[in-house]
């Protein structure tokens, strides 16, 4: 309503919204305050009722013992009902018997006395910890709704009303500016005077009024200077200083931190409010020095943290802004002096706060002043000394000296009470020492020094059973590693193993490995809450720290393998020590050899984590093989073949040790099996690469010899697995075999072979369909060319593998489809496709038909050959079925013969007048007559005979 009725000249059309918002805030505050009072009264009443019931239970017990008249419960209920209406009633009296409701009273008297039912205890609910946003909202609520809410809301409304009044009066021109400002100032003085007068009767109300009065006077002086030019800068500055000093005096007199905060906030704002842009930095920071000394004096007397924070934020905030916008190197001496003074003041304030704030765990530490002063002060210091060489490094040492000296002094004076502060100062001092290293040295040596320092800090924390140095040491290891990685560059040096890159990586790896060694067992610590929480985390860090150190060990060898030597003359580019292919191979060998050394260490010491790298050596072998193929490098190149032999030897040696290690878990056994399976696939690719080496040397890349290489390699390995591992396909006889068939026979002939089976099948089908069989420089010979021979080998390998798996006892899991008839029929279909493509290649080479799908299909020579070939195949199947009395096999041949007839009618018949059509029809007809004579349909009783698949197996 007020917003709606307010003149529109002040706020236009938004007045109604402002009024609504103020009404909402007022209603919300009143609701909160009233509900809080009711809840407090009800809680007080509940406690009184519990005490009263306990007292009455004792009275009833004694009455029962002496046959006294029991209490009138109806009167008690009536009294309780009257009490609930007034939530702030005094303690409940003992209720007398009531003449109201006599029947009920007589019934109660006649009944035997009973003890009141116990009140069930409420289960304690632990509230969830509030987050940052909830804390901020709660702080705002506490300020607005805590204490005397109505007064605070009233002050807010009063400020808004004064603003409205000033705006309206200014727009209407009712009074001179001087008069308006005087009225506002008088209102502020009145608030200050009334509040000071009520300081004894109503302290909260009085302090709120005084804070509002100080703010009004500040704003009045500011408006008179800045907005209306009624006061010169120097008098305005003096008036604000006087207001600040009087406010501080009032705050100390009444022990009010809120009033002190308001006073100093205004005091720090004075130069900002009254600045014209041409003032002296010396004058500004001299004034701030006086304010900060006043805060330091108050900190000596009072533990007002919020006042310290206000001064800290204002001082360093203004100093940072001035440094960014106004600093000139000519002002270095004065700026450096004031920065030193401000840092010393707030470090001292942090110590005074700790002295004045004892807790059960020792004196409290203001983390904002302790760490904020160091961080912000050093940041400003960096800006000041950036013009000097090594200025930041010496500044870091200066800050380190300050905090370490203070820590030493506090240790001598009160080590137990200031333990947390001493540790904080030690952390800051060591941190600045650590920071000074990179500021004076490059990234490689910096990271090395940090890593050594971290290991030293961890060792000290381990010896002293302190968690903070150990945590700092671990953190420093991570920072050192990041710094080294960020500074990695081309390793150019004439010195092998004695260059900064190799030494820097090693100086990170070795301290990390030392810390991992110390973390093998549980380290001692104090019984504090923080120490126990850290101990739980530290117990999980032994393995990650070892792997971290191992990776940097490996990185050192990688950097050495990729080292370059400087050019022989000035201006010449550096040249690598090893060729690119050799660098890749050395990278692989470095990891495999490092994993081997780690495995040796693990077997000597029983340190389990050291065996982990040796279980994953297949990964670098495979990755380097891919990189070698991408770079057109071959396994049989020199010195690649030697490195491959060494790396594979170490790899299989570690496979053997991992399999024979005692107490291997199920997960480790599965991982070992996967490494065996992956090793078979890698050997398949290595064999193919060796064959490609021969193809490359013979210049046969454009022939079918190159196309069959991978398939031949897969066929060879599949045959070896079927024959070698297939012998161990019975679980009962597995113990008779040596490693690796025992215990990994199934992994070889099933898990490793299955992908090869799919590769051989798909590769054979693709080769049969797409390979033309070019054999240059040799002549093409049907069935004796690389394509046809490879297809025959593929079918043989698949049949051998099927026989080995089918005979397995027990059958591998998910291998139930292998013995089925459908699998054999699939292989028969592949053989049928292979036989047909043999004819296609014969036609291509001897009849001059282009190796193209459409040209081959349109050739009547091809169609005639297919008709005769299919008829011969059908005749063979039907003759075989007739001899074995296998009705199903005969029907298969008959189906193929029917397909020949359909093809004759749809395809061959279209060749009008062609000799091919004549030959086709005659040949097929004769063959069908032969079939009808020599291979008639077997009788149905033949169904009872053994399955052809089983007979084939026999």
UniProtKB/TrEMBL annotation:
<feature type="transmembrane region" description="Helical">
    <location>
        <begin position="501"/>
        <end position="519"/>
    </location>
</feature>
<feature type="transmembrane region" description="Helical">
    <location>
        <begin position="539"/>
        <end position="557"/>
    </location>
</feature>
<feature type="transmembrane region" description="Helical">
    <location>
        <begin position="259"/>
        <end position="276"/>
    </location>
</feature>
<feature type="transmembrane region" description="Helical">
    <location>
        <begin position="747"/>
        <end position="771"/>
    </location>
</feature>
<keyword id="KW-0812">Transmembrane</keyword>
<feature type="transmembrane region" description="Helical">
    <location>
        <begin position="783"/>
        <end position="801"/>
    </location>
</feature>
<feature type="transmembrane region" description="Helical">
    <location>
        <begin position="177"/>
        <end position="197"/>
    </location>
</feature>
<feature type="transmembrane region" description="Helical">
    <location>
        <begin position="418"/>
        <end position="439"/>
    </location>
</feature>
<protein>
    <recommendedName>
        <fullName>Membrane protein DUF2339</fullName>
    </recommendedName>
</protein>
<feature type="transmembrane region" description="Helical">
    <location>
        <begin position="822"/>
        <end position="840"/>
    </location>
</feature>
<feature type="transmembrane region" description="Helical">
    <location>
        <begin position="231"/>
        <end position="252"/>
    </location>
</feature>
<feature type="transmembrane region" description="Helical">
    <location>
        <begin position="306"/>
        <end position="325"/>
    </location>
</feature>
<feature type="transmembrane region" description="Helical">
    <location>
        <begin position="639"/>
        <end position="656"/>
    </location>
</feature>
<feature type="transmembrane region" description="Helical">
    <location>
        <begin position="150"/>
        <end position="171"/>
    </location>
</feature>
<feature type="transmembrane region" description="Helical">
    <location>
        <begin position="577"/>
        <end position="597"/>
    </location>
</feature>
<feature type="transmembrane region" description="Helical">
    <location>
        <begin position="474"/>
        <end position="495"/>
    </location>
</feature>
<dbReference type="InterPro" id="IPR019286">
    <property type="entry name" value="DUF2339_TM"/>
</dbReference>
<feature type="transmembrane region" description="Helical">
    <location>
        <begin position="390"/>
        <end position="411"/>
    </location>
</feature>
<keyword id="KW-1133">Transmembrane helix</keyword>
<feature type="transmembrane region" description="Helical">
    <location>
        <begin position="677"/>
        <end position="695"/>
    </location>
</feature>
<feature type="transmembrane region" description="Helical">
    <location>
        <begin position="14"/>
        <end position="34"/>
    </location>
</feature>
<feature type="transmembrane region" description="Helical">
    <location>
        <begin position="609"/>
        <end position="627"/>
    </location>
</feature>
<feature type="transmembrane region" description="Helical">
    <location>
        <begin position="331"/>
        <end position="353"/>
    </location>
</feature>
<feature type="transmembrane region" description="Helical">
    <location>
        <begin position="365"/>
        <end position="384"/>
    </location>
</feature>
<feature type="transmembrane region" description="Helical">
    <location>
        <begin position="445"/>
        <end position="462"/>
    </location>
</feature>
<feature type="transmembrane region" description="Helical">
    <location>
        <begin position="282"/>
        <end position="299"/>
    </location>
</feature>
<feature type="transmembrane region" description="Helical">
    <location>
        <begin position="707"/>
        <end position="726"/>
    </location>
</feature>
<dbReference type="Pfam" id="PF10101">
    <property type="entry name" value="DUF2339"/>
</dbReference>
<dbReference type="InterPro" id="IPR014600">
    <property type="entry name" value="UCP035905_mem"/>
</dbReference>
<keyword id="KW-0472">Membrane</keyword>
<feature type="transmembrane region" description="Helical">
    <location>
        <begin position="888"/>
        <end position="906"/>
    </location>
</feature>
<feature type="transmembrane region" description="Helical">
    <location>
        <begin position="204"/>
        <end position="225"/>
    </location>
</feature>
<feature type="transmembrane region" description="Helical">
    <location>
        <begin position="860"/>
        <end position="881"/>
    </location>
</feature>
<feature type="transmembrane region" description="Helical">
    <location>
        <begin position="918"/>
        <end position="935"/>
    </location>
</feature>
């Amino acid at each position: 309503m007020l917003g709606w009725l307010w003149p529109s000249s002040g706020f236009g059309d938004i007045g109604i919204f402002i009024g609504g918002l103020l009404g909402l805030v007022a209603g919300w505050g009143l609701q909160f305050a009233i509900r809080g009072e009711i809840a407090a009264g009800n809680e007080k009443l509940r406690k009184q009722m519990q005490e009263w019931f306990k007292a009455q239970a004792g009275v009833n017990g004694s009455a029962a013992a002496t046959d006294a008249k029991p209490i009138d419960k109806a009167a008690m209920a009536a009294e309780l009902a009257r009490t609930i209406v007034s939530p702030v009633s005094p303690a409940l009296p003992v209720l007398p018997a009531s003449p109201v409701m006599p029947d009920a009273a007589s019934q109660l008297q006649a009944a035997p006395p009973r003890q009141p039912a116990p009140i069930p205890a409420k289960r304690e609910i632990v509230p969830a910890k509030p987050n940052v946003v909830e804390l901020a909202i709660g702080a705002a609520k506490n300020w607005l709704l805590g204490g005397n809410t109505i007064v605070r809301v009233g002050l807010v409304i009063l400020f808004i009303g004064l603003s409205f009044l000033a705006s309206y009066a200014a727009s209407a021109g009712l009074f001179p500016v001087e008069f308006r400002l005087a009225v506002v100032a008088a209102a502020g003085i009145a608030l200050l005077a009334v509040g000071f007068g009520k300081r004894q009767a109503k302290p909260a109300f009085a302090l709120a009024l005084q804070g509002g009065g100080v703010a009004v006077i500040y704003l009045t002086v500011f408006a008179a200077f800045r907005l209306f030019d009624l006061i010169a800068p120097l008098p305005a500055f003096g008036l604000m200083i006087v207001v600040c000093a009087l406010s501080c005096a009032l705050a100390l007199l009444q022990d009010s931190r809120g009033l002190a905060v308001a006073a100093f906030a205004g005091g720090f704002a004075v130069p900002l409010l009254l600045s014209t842009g041409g003032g002296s930095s010396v004058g500004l920071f001299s004034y701030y020095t006086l304010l900060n000394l006043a805060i330091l004096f108050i900190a000596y007397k009072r533990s007002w943290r919020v006042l310290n924070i206000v001064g800290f934020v204002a001082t360093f905030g203004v100093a940072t802004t001035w440094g960014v916008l106004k600093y000139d190197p000519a002002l270095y001496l004065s700026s450096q002096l004031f920065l030193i003074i401000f840092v010393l003041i707030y470090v001292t304030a942090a110590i005074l706060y700790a002295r004045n704030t004892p807790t059960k765990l020792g004196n409290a530490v203001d983390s904002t002043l302790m760490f904020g002063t160091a961080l912000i002060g050093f940041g400003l210091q960096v800006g000041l000394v950036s013009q000097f060489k090594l200025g930041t490094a010496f500044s870091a040492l200066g800050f380190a000296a300050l905090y370490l000296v203070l820590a030493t002094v506090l240790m001598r004076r009160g080590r137990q009470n200031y333990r947390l502060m001493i540790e904080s100062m030690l952390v800051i001092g060591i941190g600045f020492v650590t920071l000074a290293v990179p500021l004076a040295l490059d990234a490689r040596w910096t990271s090395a020094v940090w890593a050594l320092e971290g290991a030293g800090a961890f060792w000290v924390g381990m010896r002293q059973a302190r968690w903070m140095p150990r945590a700092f040491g671990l953190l420093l290891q991570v920072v050192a590693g990041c710094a080294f990685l960020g500074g990695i560059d081309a390793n150019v040096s004439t010195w092998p193993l004695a260059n900064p890159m190799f030494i820097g990586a090693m100086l990170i790896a070795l301290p990390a490995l030392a810390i991992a060694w110390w973390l093998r067992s549980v380290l001692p610590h104090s019984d504090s809450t923080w120490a126990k929480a850290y101990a739980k985390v530290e117990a999980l860090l032994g393995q990650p720290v070892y792997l971290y150190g191992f990776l940097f060990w490996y990185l050192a060898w990688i950097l050495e393998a990729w080292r370059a030597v400087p050019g022989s003359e000035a201006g010449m580019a550096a040249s690598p020590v090893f060729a690119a292919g050799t660098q890749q191979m050395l990278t692989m060998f470095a990891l495999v050899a490092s994993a081997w050394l780690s495995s040796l260490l693990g077997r000597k010491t029983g340190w389990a984590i050291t065996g982990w790298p040796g279980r994953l050596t297949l990964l670098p072998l495979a990755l380097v093989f891919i990189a070698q193929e991408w770079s057109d490098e071959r396994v049989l190149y020199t010195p690649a073949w030697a490195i491959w032999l060494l790396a594979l030897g170490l790899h299989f040696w570690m496979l053997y040790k991992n399999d024979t290690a005692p107490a291997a878990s199920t997960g480790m056994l599965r991982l070992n099996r996967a490494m065996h399976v992956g090793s078979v696939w890698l050997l398949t690719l290595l064999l193919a690469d060796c064959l490609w080496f021969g193809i490359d040397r013979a210049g046969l890349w454009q022939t079918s010899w190159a196309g069959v290489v991978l398939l031949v390699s897969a066929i060879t390995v599949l045959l070896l697995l079927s024959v070698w591992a297939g012998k161990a396909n019975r679980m009962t006889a597995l113990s008779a075999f040596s490693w690796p068939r025992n215990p990994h026979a199934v992994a070889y002939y099933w898990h490793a072979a299955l992908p090869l089976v799919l590769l051989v099948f798909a590769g054979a089908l693709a080769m049969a369909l797409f390979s033309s069989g070019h054999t240059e420089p040799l002549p093409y010979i049907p069935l004796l060319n690389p394509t046809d021979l490879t297809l025959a080998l593929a079918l043989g390998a698949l049949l051998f593998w099927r026989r080995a798996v089918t005979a397995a006892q027990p059958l591998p899991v998910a291998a139930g489809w292998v013995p089925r008839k459908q699998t054999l029929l699939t292989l028969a279909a592949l053989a049928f496709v292979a036989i047909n493509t043999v004819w296609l290649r014969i036609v291509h080479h001897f009849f001059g038909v282009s190796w193209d799908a459409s040209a081959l299909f349109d050739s009547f020579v091809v169609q005639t050959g297919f008709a005769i070939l299919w008829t011969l195949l059908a005749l063979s199947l039907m003759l075989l079925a007739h001899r074995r009395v296998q009705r199903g096999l005969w029907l298969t041949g008959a189906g193929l013969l029917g397909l020949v007839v359909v093809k004759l009618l749809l395809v061959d018949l279209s060749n009008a007048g062609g000799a091919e059509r004549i030959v086709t029809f005659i040949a097929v007809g004769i063959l069908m007559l032969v079939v009808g004579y020599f291979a008639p349909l077997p009788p149905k009783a033949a169904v009872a005979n053994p399955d052809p698949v089983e007979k084939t197996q026999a």
